[in-house]
Amino acid sequence: MSDTLLAIFSFAATIAFYYLSKAAYKRKKVLWLAPTVAAPFAMITLVIVADIPLDSYFQYTHFLVMMLGPATIAFALPIYQQRAIIARYPLTLTLGVITGLILGLMSSWVLVRLFPMPDEVASSMLARSVSTPFAMQATVKFGGIPDLTAMLVVMTGIFGMLAGEPLFKAIGVRSSHAKGSALGAASHGSGTAKAFEIGHEEGVIASLTMIFTGIAMVLGAPVFSYIL
Amino acid sequence: MTNKLKGLMAGTLQLIAICLLLWLCNQAVLWFGLPIPGSVIGLAILLVLLFGGVIPEKAVKAGAAWLIGELVLFFLPPIVSLIKYQVFIFEDGFSIIATIVVGTLMVLAGTAWVVDRIYRYERRLNQKRLIKGTTNV
């Protein structure tokens, strides 16, 4: 196959794997079918087995990545739609965002020193607790690699989604706000999806916390990178 | 069917408008050397437009909802580029997973603990306000 054909094939396969896993996950809520798990796994396998050069893979799929910018702007919509909750619980939301952001940064900063890893990975770890479009922007300021950060963000999301409920039970957290804030602040998109499974209010709180934590991470990154 | 087609066209137009807004913001970032990414400036501008009543919610709803709904699709390619970093993942897999597991547990537990307390306080505050409001009437 020529490189252009490979590029078109890669683009089509990425979209196909995404929609297939999305449809499958909708029917059966098991982790290995989730679009953040099944789609990248299938795509990576295909790229390796078919020996597709990464340059060909990215030739057209990078247009998908370019949509992360418009998607960031789109987050204005849920903020506007949920303005009543924001007006009712400004303190809860603000403190949830601040706590989540500080804990995310500090825990990464300490842990990468306890568990040795190359500098590029350690720097990419700092922004991992916020949503991908924000994390890929902020990570540059910390000296991280956007692609690597995206991977760490996804891993964080998956783990947080699985650990959330058992942890809340273990430490006796019952309020919907606490669950929503924690899931949104610790594991962004995946956490928010999980929060919506627990309840509508949890989901709304999680999505707002996720968006505000992401914005705060991007805005604060120059300052945080100076301090850390 | 025509309604569906109309919706699709409206959504596409909104999508183009959002992309255009991003492009303008990115230009502004370049010209003025702003330290904030264009996408976050665009988010702020859209919020101002919505809250200021300049544009109604339905003028961006379909396009914005689509973008948020398909967010995962947009970051699949960066994950595939991980093939480049195989070495890290195999050699430092334990450190990476340990950092993510312990770090995420800390964020989950810490945020939940703080918010649990603040939420109860703020709920009481809201109830007091509510009672005050009704007795004043």
Features of this protein?
heterodimer, A: about 230 residues, mainly alpha, 2 domains, about 80% helix, globular, B: about 140 residues, about 0% strand, extended
Describe the structure.
- The complex is a heterodimer of chains A (228) and B (137).
- With 228 residues, chain A is an all-alpha fold.
- Chain A folds into two domains: 64 residues, no CATH class; 152 residues, no CATH class.
- Chain A is built from twelve helices and no strands.
- In chain A, helix 7 packs across helix 11, helix 9 crosses helix 10 and helix 11 crosses helix 12.
- The longest helix of chain A has 28 residues.
- The model of chain A has no long low-confidence stretch (mean pLDDT 92).
- Chain B has 137 residues and is mainly alpha-helical.
- Chain B folds into two domains: 74 residues, no CATH class; 61 residues.
- Chain B contains seven helices and no strands.
- In chain B, helix 1 packs across helix 2.
- The relative contact order of chain B is 0.06.
- The mean pLDDT of chain B is 90.
Oligomerization state: heterodimer
Count of DSSP strands of chain B: 0
Structural class of chain A: mainly alpha
Classify the beta-strand content of chain B into a percent band. under 5%
Q: Helices and strands of chain B, in N-to-C order?
A: HHHHHHH
What class would the helix/strand composition of chain B place it in?
mainly alpha
Residue stretches of chain B low in confidence (pLDDT < 50, at least 5 long) are none
Number of domains of chain A: 2
Secondary structure: helix percent of chain A: over 70%
Question: How much beta of chain A, percentage-wise?
Answer: under 5%
What's the gyration radius of chain A in Å? 18 Å
Number of helices of chain B: 7
How are the elements arranged and paired?
The complex is a heterodimer of chains A (228) and B (137).
Chain A: H1 3-27, H2 38-49, H3 54-66, H4 68-74, H5 76-81, H6 83-88, H7 90-114, H8 119-125, H9 132-141, H10 146-171, H11 176-198, H12 200-227
Helix pairs in contact in A: 1-2, 1-3, 7-11, 7-12, 9-10, 9-12, 10-11, 11-12
Chain B: H1 2-32, H2 38-51, H3 61-69, H4 71-74, H5 76-80, H6 86-91, H7 93-136
Helix pairs in contact in B: 1-2, 1-3
